[in-house]
Amino acid sequence: MESKVIFDNVDDCTEKPEGGVKESVVVEPQNATHKIHCLTIIGQIEGHVVLPPQNKTTKYEHVIPQLVNIQEDNTIEGLLVILNTVGGDVEAGLAIAEMIASMSKPTVSLVLGGGHSIGVPLAVAANYSFIVPSATMTIHPIRMSGVVIGTSQTYDHFNKVQERVVSFISKNSRISFEDFTALVHQTGVIANDVGTILFGEEAVHHGIIDEVGGVSKAFDYLNGLINSRKEQQ
Predict the structure, then answer these.
(1) Given this model, what pLDDT does residue 191 score?
(2) What is the Cα–Cα distance from 58 to 60, expressed in whole angstroms?
(3) What is the average per-residue pLDDT within 104-110?
(4) At what angle do helices 152-171 and 177-184 cross, to 10 degrees?
(5) Nearest to 40 by CA among 122, 103, 104
(6) Which position among 37, 109, 117, 206 bears the catalytic label?
(7) What confidence tens digit (pLDDT) does each residue in 18-37 have?
(8) Full-model pTM
(9) Which of 63, 53, 59 is nearest to 8 (CA)?
């Protein structure tokens, strides 16, 4: 049957005067098996603070309405999330990840280039995750720029935010809370910092990502999930 794959350029989105997404690209292959929505999360995740215009960003206020539309659109059968992100706002990234994880439709993620920092929970939020061999994932403690109040309460707050992120990752992947925490606090891997850099196969070995593979594997697996869901229904 004829179907189409919808690609939204989330990173290049700008608001219309009345609000909403201005730019999107729709690709309509003639022999596709299912209608799959492809969501790209590129650059830095922008949250409550607007980043400089020269930054390549993914704005969470653009992504969340799209995810709502995908969930409610009966013609869309699956979601493919493609990531190449340096991370960004923790709350915004976690909000998007929670939305993806709570969707009833089949979801698959693919990490290209990098899925760093808050990009890790975004990658594992899907039902199944892929990473190309050359991609990397940077895992490090929660960090904050600007003025920080030097009290024990500040440390406790950082620790609770860190626990939220690690709990989400361990719940949605094969790595345990303890093993991921050990990667977060590892020293000697990142210059002048603590944390871990993982390449594609290493991310799979640690149980963060499900499988090494590219776009063809991601589509094949997603089509399989869609077929299984139809059979169950």
Answers:
(1) 61
(2) 6
(3) 95
(4) 130
(5) 122
(6) 117
(7) 444 444 444 556 666 778 88
(8) 0.81
(9) 63
Q: Which two tokens stand for residue 227?
A: 């077929």
Maximum C-alpha span of the chain: 62
Q: Residue 88: which region, alpha, beta or left (left: phi > 0; alpha: psi -120 to 50)?
A: left
Catalytic residue among 62, 116, 140, 206: 140
Question: Which of 190, 208, 78, 77 shows the shortest CA–CA distance to 135?
Answer: 208
* Residue 140: active-site member: yes
Determine the Cα–Cα distance for residues 66 and 85; give it in Å rounded to an integer.
18
Residue 117 appears among annotated catalytic residues: yes
Q: Give me the residue spans of the domains in the chain.
A: 5-137+198-232
The 10s digit of each residue's pLDDT in 118-147 is 899 999 999 999 999 999 999 887 776 666
In DSSP terms, 202 is beta-bridged to none
Give domain 5-137+198-232's CATH superfamily. 2-enoyl-CoA Hydratase; Chain A, domain 1 (3.90.226.10)
The mean pLDDT of the chain is 81
Determine how β-strand 5-8 pairs with β-strand 25-27.
antiparallel
Output the six-digit token pair for 15: 């608001």
Q: Is the dihedral of CA 151, 139, 40, 218 positive or negative?
A: negative
